[in-house]
Write a structure and sequence with these properties.
By secondary structure, this protein is an alpha+beta fold. The protein contains six helices and eight strands; from the N terminus they run E-H-E-E-E-E-H-H-E-H-E-H-E-H.
Length: about 230
């Protein structure tokens, strides 16, 4: 697996028992909708939630070339974290296998056959699908009803950090403060386990911004299906 977030933060096999309606986002984004998009991409979403802790896994419905060597051959990526009674969600991590293209075009060398077989979800990739799924879970199932979500864009290397911050800005996150090795940053460093840029977004705002992007992905997939059906006929 290849991590590029906080070390951040799909048929539904099960939903948490505490699901209830919360913030209504001005888009169709919901766990049911995400499941529909995932199915179109030949993926399934597995949600594992215990109280405020969650882990969402994105699996391929077909075995990808070479993936049988892994312990979980169908696993494409996952995101985990937990919600807090303070009203903020701690987005811990989001990780994808290197060949999914999460970091860009990995379609070279021995990874090329797997890269070509991975489902595509537009220019944002599978990260958009999994991220929207996480925020739908927060919106519908979080026992604390959190309205904000936070993550740490980790500072492992300056260029990678810059890419992370830019990516999360596109998703609606805004920088809160820098977490470094200074005494003033000690509480944040202790909570997040590293240094970087602490970023935050409103849950409803995230869904309002990124839900339509996923709706556009579904529309494109349905148009492609319609075109293929027309050709066959």
């Amino acid at each position: 697996m290849h991590s590029f977030a906080c070390s951040l933060p799909l048929a539904l096999l099960f939903l948490c028992s505490s699901c209830a309606s919360s913030v209504v986002a001005p888009s169709e984004a919901s766990l049911t909708f995400v499941n529909k998009v995932a199915s179109k991409l030949n993926c399934k979403l597995i949600i594992k939630a215990t109280g405020p802790a969650y882990r969402l896994e994105l699996h391929s419905l077909k075995l990808l070339p070479g993936s049988e060597r892994h312990d979980q051959p169908s696993l494409l990526g996952y995101s985990d974290g937990f919600t807090l009674p303070t009203g903020a969600v701690h987005l811990e991590s989001i990780q994808f296998r290197r060949y999914t293209g999460y970091w860009g075009n990995s379609g070279r060398g021995r990874q090329s056959s797997r890269y070509a077989a991975v489902p595509r979800a537009g220019s944002y990739g599978l990260g958009l699908l999994l991220s929207v799924a996480v925020f739908c879970w927060i919106n519908e199932c979080d026992p604390f009803g959190c309205k904000r979500a936070q993550l740490l864009a980790i500072m492992d290397e300056p260029k990678q950090h810059e890419i992370l911050v830019r990516y999360y800005r596109r998703l609606g996150f805004k920088p809160l403060r820098t977490v470094d090795d200074s005494l003033g940053s000690f509480p944040d460093a202790l909570v997040w386990g590293g240094s970087g840029t602490l970023m935050e977004v409103e849950v409803g705002q995230f869904l309002a911004l990124n839900g339509p992007k996923l709706e556009a992905v579904l529309s494109t997939l349905e148009d492609a299906d319609d075109a293929a059906t027309g050709i066959c006929e």
